[in-house]
Design brief:
Structural class: alpha/beta
Strand order of the largest sheet: 2-1-3-4-5
Number of helices: 7
Mean pLDDT: 83
Number of strands: 7
Radius of gyration: 17 Å
Shape: globular
Distance between the termini: 36 Å
Low-confidence stretches: 170-182, 194-208
Strand content: 15-25%
Length: 208
Amino acid sequence: MRRAVDILSEAPNELLNCISPARYVGGEFNPKAKSNALLQTVFVFPDLYEIGMSNNALKIIYNRINELDDVSCDRAFAPAPDFEALLNKKNIPLYALETGLVLREADLLLWTLSYELCATTILAMLKTSQIPLHASQRGTDSPILIAGGPCVSNPLPFSPFFDAFLDRRGGRNNARRQAGKRRLWKLFRASLRITGSKKTRGRTQRAA
């Protein structure tokens, strides 16, 4: 069973000492993430909640994925230094906003890299999530990390930390896959669901 964090139960008093604690508790109107879905994905924005929620890509991908019956897309944002310190002190992994799913137990983590200044935030979030920093260090029980956004036009600086990059501006998906066969098959199956592709006679075609 996947672990879910209820921060109001696990650190109620300490949370009140953090700046803007409401950004970490969820409880928004009309949540769409499904805790019982077969495939659990999390859209990860490497900046604070207030900045990430103004991102149009987040809203589009979040809604499109959650339209699928057996797929869930939650959201996760970078914690401020005070809340990051609280998570580390209490040994609580970084978690998704709606379901509380810890990021290390998700199937897919979908990152948007909007600007280079988020690079160190990515590493801090992986560390707080208790996910190995380098893709080569992760096993079959780790989530698959996929990155998109303006920064993946030059994915080389980020390549040690992600399993795949999606660059839609050129109409192509540029994937860097360095995991085992089981993780690659998991990535392939998930990409069919999310992108609307289908496999026909050993070849992948775009669904009409």
